[in-house]
Amino acid sequence: MDFNTEVALVTGAGRGIGLAVAEKLGNLGAAVVLADQDLTGAEAGALAIEGAGGRATALAMDVRRAEDWQEVVAEAVRRYGPLSVLVNNAGFDRPGGVAKLDRCDFEAVLEVHLTSCLLGMQTVLPVFAQAGQGAIVNVSSVYAKIGGQGEAAYSAAKAGMVGLTKSAAREMARQGVRVNCVLPGLTNTPAIRAMMSEKIKAKLLAETPLRRMAQPGEIANVIAFLASSEASFVTGAAWEVSGGWNM
Ligand SMILES: NC(=O)c1ccc[n+]([C@@H]2O[C@H](COP(=O)([O-])OP(=O)(O)OC[C@H]3O[C@@H](n4cnc5c(N)ncnc54)[C@H](O)[C@@H]3O)[C@@H](O)[C@H]2O)c1
């Protein structure tokens, strides 16, 4: 995979899967913008990429804000030229089951995962359309397909991202833009380490044929492939990267 002529924007790139994606694309030659609401991790990531000989910039961004999308995309283009890859990865969780889920929590989760994904695609489309090419990878979850007990908002948001991905793939194909999503299984990131009990982790791993969590780099590898010209005939795909969970 060769990203030497590519300019990539990765959201939620301050840690976890987003940071691994930024590092992967940077190491493959892309100029990378690491966008996150928490700039500390994104700045460290950008320095690491530059230290390895790559090109990277950290920018503060709240993916819920349309103005932030406009500013970050404009800044990426100003620094590196036409943006060609977008990875919609930023995310968070407010657990809760259907019966008692608070409406505000439900809408907050939808806003970060689903509405922000729409905003991102709407912002980059004119840039991609003008260049006649571009690749978008949206980070969904296996829960999009199987649901999660006590994870109603998150599962709904992630399922919504799959529908949004497929609609965008159909609509944007004529402009030379490919849109795909990945559905990770349990992945060893700060979010999971902070919020998931050992008991629940053990239960989920028992349902995972490979019997372990993914490392963030294993998710990043698939995202990089889908964003690369090696995947030039792949669009509208929802690719599970789950160790066999949900076969
Ligand atoms: N870790 C897993 O097991 C797993 C499994 C399936 C899907 N996912 C998805 O992968 C993505 C990354 O997950 P992770 O585990 O690396 O999470 P993480 O919490 O470790 O990292 C998420 C990053 O997103 C940033 N972020 C959150 N809200 C933001 C906002 N409004 N604007 C800008 N940045 C924001 C955070 O600051 C953080 O740096 C998420 O979309 C998550 O739902 C993760």
From TrEMBL:
Which PROSITE patterns has this protein been placed in?
ADH_SHORT (PS00061)
Entry-linked Pfam families: adh_short_C2
Q: Which InterPro entries match?
A: KR_dom, NAD(P)-bd_dom_sf, Sc_DH/Rdtase_CS, SDR, SDR_fam
Name its GO BP terms in alphabetical order: monocarboxylic acid metabolic process
Q: Which residues form the Ketoreductase domain?
A: 6-189
Superkingdom in the source lineage: Bacteria
Q: Which Gene3D superfamilies match?
A: NAD(P)-binding Rossmann-like Domain
Tell me the protein family, please: Belongs to the short-chain dehydrogenases/reductases (SDR) family.
- The protein, known as: Beta-ketoacyl-ACP reductase
> What organism is listed for this UniProt entry?
Desulfoferula mesophila
